[in-house]
Amino acid sequence: MSDPADGSLHWAAQRERGNFMAIKLTAWAVRSFGRRTMTPLLYAIVFYFFATGRTARRHIRLYQKHLADWSGRPGLAPRTGSVFAQFMRFGECLLDRLDAWRGKLGPADVDMHDPSGVRDALRASGNGVRGQILVCTHLGNLDVCRAMAEAGERVPLNVLVHTRNAVHFNRVMNEAGDHGMRLIQVSDLDTAVMMDLSQRLARGEWIAIAGDRIPLHGGRSVTVDFLGRPAAFPQGPWLVASLLRCQTNLICCLKIKGRYRIHLERGPDASAWDRRERDARISESVRGYAHWLGQRCLDAPHQWFNFHHYWNDKD
What residue numbers bound the domain in which 158 lies? Predict the structure, then answer.
């Protein structure tokens, strides 16, 4: 979580708040004493970031206002309590990530909403069955999805990330056991990496890439309606899918009444996209993703963890 002086600073350029030893100490305490015992400490840490995170508070209020206006649900309008609740859900999410990678969560702890049968495709990967792309989001807890894919479904997963601004937490995650995953910086998608990804798909491995954050350098984007306001979304997932000629799938994991619920849904199949229609297909895909994401925000309004400037206010 970060709090730049300039509220319009790109999310990837924002410095991570906190330091490695503080995060590591918190992770050790949770492992040693349990989450229930450490709840007061969690509240104290979250309250610090809430009290000092003026810019983040403003962006959360804006998100909650847009969600309330777009949905016609005035009960979702921002209040001090609802803004703090969103900070609190973020703190709990970080602890849940540690649980996921320490093996504290298994398939029995997760509900699956999968009307399109994406999970069956995951299980069938390999042995001549090509892998696919998972388009994920910073709504909810992505690490539960990743842990389930690695441990539950036994599917090799290649995650395209921008982690340089979260080096402290990544070090903690590595020490917690997050070793079996290949993390690829989104800024490093050159020809060699794309060829490597193509070979991995051919072996039945899957690729995960976020669909709701634009890379800092050279990020091509499409501006679409999101919660009733224009917002820029990256072309990356759909462009990669078209270049690698593969199926896309939408995924997020929400915590509903204390249980995780993974939402899986078929996205566009880019395997047959013609190059001349690629731009139009990408724009259509982004619009569909933004609408799906808005619906998922209504399922868990306080689990939107994009704490930065998001909407194109000048449009």
Answer: 11-303
